[in-house]
Write a structure and sequence with these properties.
hpI Integrase, Chain A; 14 helices; elongated
Length: 301
C-alpha cells in the first residue's frame, strides 16, 4: 500500500486522478465531484484517507443537512450524496479497508414525472456541450448528431440509432421506421443534416450501407446508454433538471411545434404516434404541406 497523502491538496489531487483516469469521467464531472469532496473535507476536518474512510452516517447527515439549509434541492442533494459515497469508497481502498462497507444513508426522494420540455436554446446548448465534453472529437460529433435528430426531427433514440449507412447522404426528409414497423417521413433542418454530415466525416469506422450509422468507440453499433450518460453529465453542468433526458428532447420537439402553430394531425404524423381511429387520416397530409408546417413552426428553423 502506498503512503497516504498528508495534505488536503494531495487528497483532492488523488481523487481527481482517480475520477479522470481511473473512471474516465468528463472534466466537468471531475470538477463537480472534486468540489463536493473539498466541501466534505472542510466540513468534517478529515485530514487523511483513514479519517475520511471512518466518517459515519451521522457526520454525513449533518453535512448534508447544512447543504440543504444552503438551498440545494432534492436532485442536487442526491447527486452530492452519490459523489460523497464514491469519495468515501475511494478513501477506504486507499486506507486499506478491505471490508469496504459504506455508511447506510437514504437519499432524498425524487419525484418522477412526465418529461418536461427544455427551451430551444437549452436543447441546442445540451447537444453542443455533449460534443465539447467528449473524450474524442468524433464521439462528440456523434452524440451531438443523435441529440439533434431527437430535438430537430422528433426521433426516438432507438429510431436514431437504427439508421444505417444507407441513409446517407441525408436530404431534406428522412424515412424512419418506428414502433410497430410503421414508417413515416420527417423533414430535416439544415442544422440536423450538418451535424450528421460532420459526424460521418469524422467517424473513423467505415459506414457501410448495411451497418449502423452511429458507432460505439470500438466500432460496434452505438448503445442508447452511452448517449444517455453523456446527456446526463451535460445537463448537470447546464443546471437543467433531471427530466432533461434525451427522450425529453423529443417531447420538447412536440411541445415547441404545437406551441408555434403546428396542427395535431401533422404533429402526430411527425412523431409516428398511433391513432385511436383510422390511420388513413395521416395519409391525407401531403409531404409539401408537412414540410411547410415544420419549417414555419419549429423555433430553430
Amino acid at each position: 500500500m502506498t503512503t497516504p497523502p498528508t495534505t488536503r491538496a494531495d487528497l483532492l489531487e488523488s481523487w481527481h486522478e482517480h475520477l479522470a483516469h481511473g473512471r474516465r469521467l468528463s472534466p466537468h464531472t471531475v470538477r463537480a465531484y472534486g468540489t463536493t469532496a473539498a466541501r466534505l473535507l472542510d466540513a468534517t476536518g478529515a485530514a487523511d484517507w483513514a479519517s475520511i474512510a471512518a466518517l459515519d452516517a451521522r457526520s454525513l447527515r449533518e453535512h448534508l443537512a447544512t447543504r440543504r439549509l444552503a438551498g440545494i434541492g432534492n436532485v442536487s442533494a442526491a447527486r452530492e450524496l452519490s459523489a460523497i459515497r464514491g469519495f468515501i469508497a475511494f478513501a477506504k481502498t486507499q486506507a486499506g479497508d478491505t471490508a469496504n462497507t459504506l455508511p447506510r444513508m437514504r437519499g432524498p426522494r425524487i419525484k418522477r414525472g412526465l418529461p418536461r420540455p427544455v427551451t430551444p436554446d437549452d436543447a441546442v446548448n445540451l447537444a453542443a456541450l455533449v460534443a465539447d465534453d467528449a473524450q474524442q472529437a468524433w464521439i462528440g460529433a456523434r452524440d451531438r448528431a443523435v441529440l439533434l435528430l431527437m430535438y430537430g426531427a422528433g426521433l426516438r433514440i432507438a429510431e436514431a440509432l437504427s439508421l444505417t449507412g444507407a441513409d446517407l447522404p441525408l436530404g431534406e426528409t428522412l424515412r424512419v421506421t418506428g414502433k410497430g414497423s410503421k414508417q413515416r417521413v420527417v423533414p430535416l433542418l439544415p442544422i440536423v443534416r450538418q451535424a450528421v454530415d460532420a459526424y460521418a466525416a469524422a467517424c473513423p469506422w467505415p459506414l457501410a450501407r448495411d451497418q449502423a450509422l452511429f458507432r460505439g468507440a470500438k466500432g460496434g453499433p452505438l448503445a442508447q446508454g452511452m448517449v444517455q450518460k453523456a446527456a446526463a453529465r451535460a445537463r448537470i453542468v447546464l443546471g437543467l433538471p433531471a427530466t432533461a433526458t434525451p427522450h425529453a428532447l423529443r417531447h420538447s420537439f412536440a411541445t415547441h411545434l404545437l406551441g408555434n402553430g403546428a396542427d395535431l394531425r401533422s404533429l402526430q404524423e411527425l412523431l409516428g404516434h398511433a391513432s385511436l381511429g383510422s390511420t388513413q387520416i395521416y395519409t391525407q397530409v401531403d409531404a409539401a404541406s408537412l414540410l411547410e408546417t415544420y419549417r414555419r413552426a419549429h423555433p430553430r428553423s
